[in-house]
Amino acid sequence: QVQLVESGGGLVQAGGSLRLACAVSGLSFNWHSLGWFRQAVRKDREFVGAVPWNDGNTVYADSVQGRFTIARDNARNTVYLQMNNLTSEDTAIYYCAATRNIVEMRSTAAYEHWGQGTQVTVAS
After folding, report:
1. d(CA 19, CA 45)
2. Cβ contact 53:33 at 8 Å
3. Which residue from 6, 9, 7, 8 is spatially nearest to 121, judged by alpha carbons?
4. How many CB atoms lie within 10 A of CB 88?
5. Which of 26, 59, 79, 111 sees the fewest Cβ atoms within 10 Å?
């Protein structure tokens, strides 16, 4: 059974930082690209960033480039999302997802497996 479990969400003041973690089990972690998405109230789920399984470049949405960093720990089957300089616009439920895809990592449709999400709230 594939499981992706996010943790690390919470309430933070604007300008602060949070680190999310996503623990993955039940699949070949080393052979899956890992993505982070978010969904704010009354908005569609949007791409945040993704790290491919093949040592390729990590990609980010323009809105988080330079503030967010994704790292994967293949020994722990865990992917992290370090979020710095948070603003109220970053308030959302954050989801991690896994896919064998490399090319279409920005699309929600490319991902086969999803976590349940963790809430991030940034107080202005």
Report:
1. 20
2. yes
3. 9
4. 10
5. 26
